[in-house]
Amino acid sequence: MSKCIVIVATKNTRETFYDRALPSIKQQTIQPEHIVIVNDSVPFSGKQEEEIKSILEDNEYTVLSNIYTKGVAGAWNSALKFICETSFNGFIAILDDDDEWDTNHLEENLIRANLDSADVVISGLRIINKNTLYSRPLPSKLVPKDFLTGNPGWQGSNTFVSLEVLKTVKGFRNGLLSTNDRDLAFRILSLSDLKISYTNKWTSSWYVDSNDLSLSLPKSKSKVEGLRWFWYLYRTYFEEKDRNTFFERAWKLFQISEKEITTIRSNKPLQKSLFGDLDVK
Questions:
Q1: CA separation (Å) from 266 to 191, 197, 225, 257, 269?
Q2: DSSP letter string over 213-236?
Q3: What is the CATH number of domain 4-211?
Q4: What pTM value is reported for the model?
Q5: What are the pLDDT digits (tens) for 244-265?
Q6: Is beta strand 91-94 parallel, antiparallel or unpaired with respect to 132-134?
Q7: Residue 137: CA count within 13 A, CB half-sphere
Q8: H or E stretch covering 163
């Protein structure tokens, strides 16, 4: 069976990292070969290091600092660069520091990956907000266009992708403050001969209420800049209907106007292509 490495990026500010995310990794029916924790904030204290060790026990893990631009994209790329410098050949599973997996999450993804010889496996990611479960369809038959106007169900904590594919698209875009999930999905799904499989099961949970408030506040800098980057990168792929939906959604959810998004300032992605900024061969 294929192997996997788990990546968890954290700002070292959330208790959910210790009481939700790490325990859900430890409780997996199939354990990862390695766990890479990337700290995107102040270093862990001695007490925090001991807590991590006590939770993961005999699991092999590495703690890194973000060597790229501050933010989750740079943190994930830091982990990928570290992994690429090893002999590992398998899958990368990402878990946000405030989310959790069902105990069979890695097992279900690995089973599908092996049965279907898949490059990408997508399982169901529940939406939970203040203890309320919100209905959404299980992801299936995803195409790049699905991610232009929103996210149909492939996000951070249900990302399960072969390392080779992540190297092919050069990981994430350093400095992208939001929409990293949509950006990665669009680029990966645009690859030719991609083998994608679906577990058709709910195996992970996204806790909306504990996510970074700066991304959900109306007119937040992070959300405005993220949408600007996304628009700048993908505007040529939008049809008129998609364009209207994109701007209507931005206004409805975040009170961000079309003008605010289309006013591209000096802060632009380093390159405008279907590749990220991971500097590995």
A1: 30, 39, 11, 19, 9
A2: GGGTSTT-HHHHHHHHHHHHHHGG
A3: 3.90.550.10
A4: 0.94
A5: 999 999 999 889 999 999 987 6
A6: unpaired
A7: 6
A8: helix 163-168
